[in-house]
């Protein structure tokens, strides 16, 4: 199981509302625990199972780690010099970016489109689920940063929005 699959699993568990999920495979044991609703953090614990003792070394890194999962913050200020006045809408999940609800439909938004909070901007397919990405800001689409049907990473910039 690679990092992308684990991140997708974390997102799926967080959206499902489950408080704890345990997954055991041949050589991996993963426990995902979500905190209380107030806390909003997700923790992943991963440790290899069945490791022979002779491979363990006293100064080897610990395999039993807990680290907070990345936040699913969707909107953040842009970093580029020219784009300081724009807001960057970023991908909250890993998946495939689609500008249209289906191949025969119109795109959700284009450059110059006026948007408001709650408007659907695109869909991202992750693990055979199509997630509608809604705007958390109002403004005007200045630039679409990703091509249709392209893979996107967590926190990858998708759109630049002029909030004025």
Structure description:
Residues 86-162 form the Lipoyl-binding domain. With 164 residues, the protein is mainly β. A hairpin with a 3-residue loop joins strand 1 (20-24) and strand 2. The longest helix has 14 residues, at 3-16. It is built from one helix and 13 strands. It has one helix at residues 3-16; strands spanning 20-24, 28-34, 42-48, 65-68, 75-77, 87-90, 95-98, 114-115, 120-126, 129-134, 139-144, 150-152, 157-162. The strands form three sheets. Strands 5-6-13-11-8 form a five-stranded antiparallel beta sheet, with no helix packed on it. Strands 1-2-3-4 form a four-stranded antiparallel beta sheet. Strands 10-9-7-12 form a four-stranded antiparallel beta sheet, with no helix packed on it.
């Amino acid at each position: 199981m690679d990092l992308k699959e684990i991140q997708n699993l974390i997102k799926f568990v967080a959206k499902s509302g489950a408080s704890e999920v345990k997954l055991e495979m041949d050589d991996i044991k993963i426990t995902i625990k979500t905190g209380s609703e107030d806390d909003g953090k997700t923790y992943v614990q991963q440790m290899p199972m069945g490791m022979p003792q002779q491979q363990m070394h006293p100064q080897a890194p610990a395999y039993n780690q807990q680290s907070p999962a990345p936040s699913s913050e969707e909107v953040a200020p842009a970093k580029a010099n020219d784009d300081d006045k724009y807001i960057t809408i970023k991908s909250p999940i890993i998946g495939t970016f689609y500008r249209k609800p289906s191949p025969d439909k119109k795109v959700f938004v284009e450059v110059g489109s006026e948007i408001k909070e709650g408007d659907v901007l695109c869909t991202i397919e992750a693990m055979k689920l199509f997630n509608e990405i809604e705007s958390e800001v109002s403004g005007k689409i200045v630039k679409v940063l990703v091509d249709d049907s392209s893979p996107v990473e967590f926190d990858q910039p998708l759109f630049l929005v002029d909030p004025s």
